[in-house]
Design brief:
transmembrane, Diverse_Substrate_Transporter, mainly alpha, about 0% strand, transmembrane helix, membrane, about 300 residues, globular
Amino acid sequence: MQENSSSLSETSSVAKNKHLSTKIVNNIPPQIFALLAMVSVQMGASVGKSLFQVIGPLGTTFLRLGFAAIFFMLLWRPNIRQLTRKNVFLVVSFGIAIACMNSAFYIAIDRIPLGIAVTLEFVGPLGVAIIQSRRLKDVLWVVLAAAGILLLAPLGSKMEIDLIGVACALIAGIFWGLYIIFNVQIGRAFAGGQGLALSMVVAALLSTPIGIISGGAAVFAPQNLLSGLGVSVLSTMIPFTLELEALRRLPSRVFGIFMSVEPGIATIIGFLVLHEVITFREIMAILLIITASIGTSLEGKTKH
């Protein structure tokens, strides 16, 4: 009898603690979760950049995607037996988009400041939003984004910017756009995040050969594995959890508007953590693309 009473007391205590933690989480504005998710992603990129000197951008990509694949497989435990031919095509396509997006982005931030790379990468989701909208008004946002990109191009100026880095950031943006399109289709084809988990495995496998060749034996050094885990936690696991909580309580379009300021956050973190200094012209370019991104989100909100 005494054991039963003790067990009931423990159960009640656990329930109270769970209720208290839920209450605390619910009292935090969802905008805070969205902001923290963006900060976490950019901090992860900063940590990743410090790894480049040891194992290179592609070695870092391999570690990030490898740990992320393990995390999502444990979280969602997808049933492989339920895969159809159509679903396999989706999973592989999504995995290719994830691998290429991350690889190109890491090569970009190895060559150009973090804030500029994130800004250029935003051209991908911006383009998807504009194409899906098909509103004449959205031409304005295209012009603003194009003006921002042109400001970053060293045309007839003494501005020094690595063109390979710019190209890789834009390529990352294209694959980010494809990521968004495939993510919607994956969400319809699979329950929960099962499709994402399988696609992350594909991405990790694709990045393995070139990641190991690029990073060499140093990839498997304990300190580098630990740093790679840190990159994956900051860039994938924490943001995923925070974004889920934000999306649970925020309309998707409002969430999109908040995410539009990510280039600004990347610029600040690049300055504070990586000591990357950017010019006034580059700041203007970032502001133009942020404005274009916010504009498409607002137009989408009005439309819906």
